[in-house]
User: What shape does this take?
Amino acid sequence: QEVRTVFPEMVDVRQLKDDKEAGGITDLHGMNYNALSVVAIKAIQEQQLMITELKKEIELLKEALKEKGK
Assistant: This one.
């Protein structure tokens, strides 16, 4: 149910006809894990890009320190 607030298109809600069988539950929430994996892959790609850019920045700062120390 927490996922539904952020990614409503990933949650499937089904109304149950007989809530007695489900212990009083009237609706059943299901996850579309295929859609979740797409979002996760995109997030990982963005994170990897940030890591690559930060590594470049670190190398530039190291070079600047070496030049300053000469």
